Amino acid sequence: MDLKQLRALLTVSETRSVTRAAAVLHLVQPAVSRQLRLLEEEMGAPLFTRERNGMELTDAGKLLAEHARRALRELDQARGEIQSASVAVSGVVNLGLLPSTCDLIAGPIAAGVKNKYPGVKLRVITGYAGHLQQWLLAGDLDAALLYDREPTPTLAIEPLLDESLYIVGLPVSGLALRKPRRLSFLTGKPVILPSAPHGIRALVEHECAVQKVTLDVVAEADAMNLQKTFVQHGLGYTVLPGAAILDDVARGVLAAAPMNPALRRRVVSAWPAQKRITRATQCVLDEMRVAVNECVTKGRWAGANLIARR
């Protein structure tokens, strides 16, 4: 097995055609077919089937493609580090961001990386915290933003900020940013929450147990946009971080109030603890902290307090 065979496998899987893959790889079609044949002989299993829409990976092919992507990504990073050891920082960095934070910091991070480290290629992937953590541990991400995580033998973290959670409803609800409400405000009212074990759901249920509050959860939605849509359609109230609702409140689409006592969650940057962090990844992490600090200090991240760097 060699790199040419792995690149042929991935290119055929993406283009669904040996002919198109050959054009992408600047090879003749028989050469690509031969690489696939040798790979199948070595694996002892067929890697593709021919369907109406073109070449499709078999289960064995999907498994090999997953490992091939990871291997090639690691090699690309190693090449970038070796070539840049004595010159400018370069390499590929896969960064995971949470949906609620993406609009706030993705642009500033990308701009900062481009201006300061033009040799770094940044790839941004969005996902829920649980998925981002899985991708980190699987090696598919180099760094990510996560919620309420502590360091573990496999995960290194740096706390960035604490953010307040808000009760969110329609403008006619009487909720206001300067008028904190107790969690008991939601008693007897329809509530929309994420499904368990989502972080916000866990925080709210824990606080309900502490304050002896019972909620009537009429709908579940893991996506914050869906939670806001359900509220706008009059289905009930929800609980969201300030970063997700500040623009909607300013436009008069939604109303929100912080909780009293405050219900907060921690946002951290994270990376695999058992994998050496590259120079390029460290530079992206630095730019992420700069972007977060700027959002908080300029008031764009509602209800957030920065955590001093250790």
From TrEMBL:
<dbReference type="InterPro" id="IPR005119">
    <property type="entry name" value="LysR_subst-bd"/>
</dbReference>
<dbReference type="GO" id="GO:0003700">
    <property type="term" value="F:DNA-binding transcription factor activity"/>
</dbReference>
<keyword id="KW-0238">DNA-binding</keyword>
<comment type="similarity">
    <text>Belongs to the LysR transcriptional regulatory family.</text>
</comment>
<dbReference type="InterPro" id="IPR036388">
    <property type="entry name" value="WH-like_DNA-bd_sf"/>
</dbReference>
<feature type="domain" description="HTH lysR-type">
    <location>
        <begin position="1"/>
        <end position="58"/>
    </location>
</feature>
<dbReference type="GO" id="GO:2000142">
    <property type="term" value="P:regulation of DNA-templated transcription initiation"/>
</dbReference>
<protein>
    <submittedName>
        <fullName>LysR family transcriptional regulator</fullName>
    </submittedName>
</protein>
<keyword id="KW-0804">Transcription</keyword>
<dbReference type="Pfam" id="PF00126">
    <property type="entry name" value="HTH_1"/>
</dbReference>
<keyword id="KW-0805">Transcription regulation</keyword>
<dbReference type="InterPro" id="IPR000847">
    <property type="entry name" value="LysR_HTH_N"/>
</dbReference>
<dbReference type="InterPro" id="IPR036390">
    <property type="entry name" value="WH_DNA-bd_sf"/>
</dbReference>
<keyword id="KW-0010">Activator</keyword>
<dbReference type="GO" id="GO:0003677">
    <property type="term" value="F:DNA binding"/>
</dbReference>
<dbReference type="Pfam" id="PF03466">
    <property type="entry name" value="LysR_substrate"/>
</dbReference>
